[in-house]
Amino acid sequence: MLIRGFESFFARSEISYMFNLSSVNEKHRYIYEKIDANYISVIQPEGWMDLSCIWEDLHDIGKCRDAKKSSYKSTKNWSRYSTHFLGAVGELCFSISANTPANLEDIAEGDGNCDFLLHGSKIDIKSTQYWKNPDLKQYPNPKKWVDYYILCGVDVDKKRAKIFGWASRDQIMNAPKKDYGYGMQCSLNHSVLNSDLKTLFEECEAKIAKNLSK
Known about the structure:
This protein is α+β, with helices and mostly antiparallel strands. The strands form two sheets. Strands 1-6-5-3-2 form a five-stranded mixed β-sheet. It contains seven helices and eight strands; from the N terminus they run αααβααβββββαββα. It is globular, with a radius of gyration of 17 Å. The chain has one domain.
């Protein structure tokens, strides 16, 4: 079964990636089924996605992650909303945008900063509730750098989310440093990010093609 909403979304954005629900973990398949049933209302103008039909499900995923990771030093929460809830929202938003299934499992030891593996490239989703003028932020000394970083803004009041753009590892590593009140971070405003996801997909495909040709 293919997600009909994705088909509609990618027809508009001229992207044709599709995946079958059989590739989604059975435990969370119902979430994509809800998206499919509400696809007309999910895709909104200006890149927003109305996730109200799965909002409580995403809260539940966030709570499960909170419970399993509460003892880990890497778990930080400076927001009044669960970091893991916002993360789950961002992952679903990118999943719909990229038309690739998200891994919504509860991994207590963490995901190694890698939320998605797209054509061999590691991708980390950075979600923020401060969506009106969001920054893509990354501490300068993570345990593992990934290939690409995606910025997702989450409008909690309206239960919607939007991919604002992306940056490569080199771009974020060389970004200006800014202190938001809890240590210096590499910071890029959404206005300077790459906004075309199709370009990201093409870069990932080109990388794997180059590696295969060696």
